[in-house]
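Look over this entry.
=====
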Amino acid sequence: MSTGWLTAVMLLVTSPLLGSDMSGLELGRRLYHEGLGVDGRPVIATLVSPGAAGDGVPVPGTAMTCARCHGADGRGLPEGGVTPSNLTWRSLTRPYQVTHPSGRRHGPYDPDALRRAVTEGVDPAGNPLHVAMPRFELTDTDLDALQAYLVHLGPAAEPGVHRDRIILAAWIPATASQASELRSSIEHWAADVNDRGGLYRRQVELRFVTAPDFAQAIDPGEVFAVLAPVTDPALVDWGRSVGLPVVMAAEGSDGLVRRTGRALSRLRSNLEQAGRRLTRATLLAPP
């Protein structure tokens, strides 16, 4: 990466774009996690199948977000036999040739190569990317914001993880049965965990959400996971689309509060099952 381009990116990270109140980094995060362009509207994504007639069917980028396949941290979420590439800028710009399991080989990415990959579906050597990789219709400003966010991604970008605390959202709709008891149960669990040294040596900080529209109320870039004692498949689907684990109380014949307590006691294994890899240096390094 050239020094000049890196300087431009660092300015973009903190500067608003197109009159927006959001910085380039914030706009890039929104594009990566939500599929919304700098103008606030969904970008267009198209899957192109080899040998198929036509140019594919365009769909809103909100249905094919970067985070859905590449994870909230950009490292890729293996699923269905497909292992998406690591999109952290450190990985993309490694100064040597990379050989993928398929045999595809290419050198390091630069800003122009990344733009071709995202919009044309080819790697730096001109090889076609995996068929699961959509082609996105992005403006130059969209691409600038996305690149700024990819530069930001890395070990320090784990959502909701700080040196001394880990932030969890707890979604309990105000209309939920036993809402007050559920909140009290979660608060007591967090207090007990913190008294015993915290979660991965970090204090648990809770952010309770009661709004019915959880997608608007929960920022996937701000929390590590969502605790949801009230079963809602839509919440799980949304969490998967933005790379955010959702831990729910399992169905059962006993009380909801008791099931919630049991789910919390297995929080670490539940998070692992939900897709959050807990062995990363950002979690296990001394706070």
Summary: The chain is about 35% helix and 15% strand. The two ends are 31 Å apart (CA to CA). Residues 168 and 206 are 5 Å apart (CA to CA).
